[in-house]
Batch of 2 targets.
Target 1
Amino acid sequence: MNLRRWLGPSVIVATLALSGAVQPLVDQARAAGPASTPVPKITNLSGGLGAQDSQQVTADQAKGYGPVDQTAPLDFSTQPKTVPHEYVPGRLYNVQVYTKYSYAQLIGQMTYFASSLGVQCTYCHNAQNYAYDTSTKKAARLMAKMVVAANAQYIDPVHKDYPNYAVSGAVGCVTCHRGQPRMAVQYNVVPVQYLDYRYKNQKQAGYTVNSMYGVARSLGVNCLFCHNTADFISLQYYPTNQIAHRMWRMVDAINHEYLPANIKAVTCYTCHQGAKWPTRMVTAALDQTPVDPKAAHPEVHENPGAHLASGAQP
Ligand code: HEC
Ligand code: HEC
Ligand code: HEC
Ligand code: HEC
């Protein structure tokens, strides 16, 4: 029997049997870890929100940045040289990401930040000196860099590889935040080093499949949305699978390259929130006009098998 064909389904069955006992596996993985690659934060692989998750969320909330303490004295020794001691409104001093923006455009972006997170300007700024970098503002700047990079490197707003494939839209602050500065982590995604288990061991295969439940639930789809059950191993059947592959790398990059360790992990759910395309996309990286998801996706591909039946390249 072809071992690769056999491995996929058998692992699914084994994982179903094990699904109550996922956390010990995760703990083992954290303790052991692959020799060369650091194991990133994995808060929950179990795929659902149980008591453990609520505790995790509460603990994470305590670590957040929160609104800026307006009474804390300013310490200019920790600041970039461009930050003035005497702040004059209407001028730009310490803009590192939106460098091409005029003052008016920057304020437009700021209004967008505030409404995406459901906060006031003073959540991030010292009201006496908007150029002064607070911890919350620095976190927001990292987020801005992450959004620009994710859109440039991983998001395909017009689906140029699949021109007939009706998904469009870029990621903005609102895609994840949806009116809240902090949110719960749901359905964690295993790091990419566990993803391609084909040439690795059964234990890692278990992580991949556990993660798959979270992936499916994050998108509100079933396994057939991305896989051909006759062949779980080949990825070529549906574009969704290849898109998911690209998304997985994006999630890994977001968590390891852009966000500091004290920020909670981003998962498929953070953007998708139960929908196969995030309902809160924006039209372009720096143009924050929200897209009407219905207008952007006239063709709903409920049955991915249709691509196969028609024999057409979807
Ligand atoms: C979510 C955090 C956040 C919120 C809320 C926010 N800002 Fe900002 N603000 C930033 C960041 C980050 C920068 C720096 C952007 C960069 O480096 O490109 C910035 C920069 C600025 C600057 C330029 C300061 C300078 O260096 O000269 C002004 C002015 C400003 N914000 C005003 C506002 C106003 C007014 C509001 C409310 C409508 C607001 N901000 C809300 C995070 C925020
Ligand atoms: C890919 C998802 C994602 C996107 C897009 C995103 N964020 Fe975040 N952001 C997070 C996560 C996750 C946290 C951590 C939340 C927590 O600790 O509860 C966070 C935290 C923050 C915080 C700190 C909140 C606190 O008080 O601890 C700020 C400020 C912030 N984001 C600003 C922004 C801004 C501004 C944008 C757009 C430029 C943005 N974010 C886009 C996922 C995202
Ligand atoms: C949103 C798309 C998507 C959904 C939904 C999905 N998967 Fe996956 N699946 C992937 C991707 C991407 C991989 C990565 C394969 C790789 O790189 O080896 C994968 C890998 C796998 C593998 C390992 C194949 C191999 O040998 O590499 C198995 C088994 C699997 N998925 C099972 C499932 C099951 C069971 C479900 C339903 C609970 C499911 N998947 C739902 C996208 C998806
Ligand atoms: C930073 C936000 C973000 C995160 C996190 C994210 N996605 Fe996406 N996803 C998008 C956007 C935006 C689109 C539409 C544009 C595109 O395809 O590039 C999309 C589209 C998709 C599609 C195509 C849906 C369809 O109907 O054609 C799949 C499949 C998908 N994502 C899977 C995943 C998986 C799996 C994960 C977790 C590993 C994930 N996404 C995490 C933003 C995100």
Target 2
Amino acid sequence: MRVLIVAANNEHKPDPVVPLGAAFIAAAARDAGHDVRLFDACFQNDPITALRDELRSFRPQVVGLSIRNIDDVCWPQAHSYLSYYRDLVRTIREADQRPVLVLGGSAFTLMPDQFLRELQPDHGIAGEGELAFTQLLHGLSQGESAPRLLRGRGENFTTQPALDLVDLPEYYQRGGALNVQTRRGCGFSCSYCSYPLLEGRQSRVMAVKDIVDGLEAGLRLGGARHFFVVDNTFNHPPAHAFSFCDELIARRIDVSWTAYVSPGALAPGLLERMAEAGCSSVEFGTDAAANPTLRALGKSFQAHAIIDASSQARAAGLKFAHSLILGGPDETLYTLRQTVEVIEQTNPDAVFAMLGVRLYPGTPLAQRAEREGLIAEREIGIDPVFYVSEAVEQDLENYAEALRERHPNWYFPGLEGDRWVRFWRRRRSHGVRGPLWEWMSDQTPTQRQGAGP
Ligand code: B12
Ligand code: SF4
């Protein structure tokens, strides 16, 4: 069958990101013998017209629409991508040959019923889509009917993403890095987190030889040497993390990379091995640094682990950033101050601070929000709802603004608007690659607003 995979995402903040999920699905369909193209909306000035042209020229029988983001999770003023998805769907529905429309991707997986209702596709596949999508294609080619909502879970993780269908040089030039997935699933139970809902709780790894083969091929195609490991927690399980590093070291590949690391459960020597394997920086999934807030967020570590992990990163020669969630459950002005003090003490290269917690159905925090009378879990939908602790709700924005004034290298996606965009574009056009936050600590606010070098 002629199958068009549409990677819908065209968000460029904080960077355009290679549509890895769409590339996995395209590869699976191609391996199953279908004639596959990938339409990527990311760098299209007018994605709707470009998609219409693609539909006219390729005349697909099936369109797989990959939707990654629901919204930008920015409190107090979140931006939803729903109306853009509606426009894409309308364009697909208007195509002469009336292709079967299948929805998938992380946005769809988090709220399948709501997206089925809003976008009215023929089918939707929640979860990992490789196997479920190819089975659906097989059924459709045989004229069989299939349920509207299908679920893919914990499927084989051996397919290499079809990166040859993606404009990797453009992503490298404008986004500064390619990406790779080495592992799926998370066994931790953070109270707000959607990742176990997306990837399951069981950790599944791809053979390191295969990962690094795919990575090398992608880097060659993109003319790139920087990449981001998208795994939710690279350091867990440690044996896999060590063997990924060992494979990079053994092949002597000249790379520079970044990964998410949990400050808890840091195996001795892992950060050093990562540095030896070309890792330049880590993003700690810290969330908070006051023990009561860490407990309410369901984190598996306490504040001292954050201090310890930060010192280890410094000693290993890695730059590091902390990702924070300020104003979450059990947050008070006292715990906020504690978090800030601990984070300041670690002297990070950058901090990303989200304000409030975007609620997802199926998480313990959503249940708590229902118990507290904030919102019934079944009503949490595409329109984002945030959990903000009552004790800080009034002061949170001002508190964050003050922090932002004090710390030029602390980035608050909910407060920034386009403040950083010009600065980032300039850096990229000057050939800067890798995470831009690695440069944040070196900049003055004036330089960031575009008057700098
Ligand atoms: C890594 C990551 C990042 C990195 C990306 C770095 C990089 N170079 O790639 C960074 C930090 C830059 C980032 C930024 C953002 N991210 Co982010 N990110 C992730 C993360 C952890 C992994 C994404 C990934 O690559 N997964 C691997 C791929 C293979 O998985 P996948 O895309 O889900 O694809 C599978 C299935 O969904 C399905 N599938 C996919 N497409 C299709 C299509 C069809 C037809 C079918 C059938 C199936 C199917 O099959 C695929 C393979 O099994 C996810 C959370 C998660 N665990 O998924 C959040 C996540 C995607 N991010 C999210 C968000 C919100 C953002 C930001 C908007 C946050 C912000 N304000 O800055 C930005 C947007 C950036 C952008 N340009 O779009 C949300 C989206 C949900 C939501 N509320 O909208 C997620 C889900 C996290 C969350 N909060 O729950 N992110
Ligand atoms: S926050 Fe990180 S460690 Fe916690 S459940 Fe989510 S992915 Fe796992």
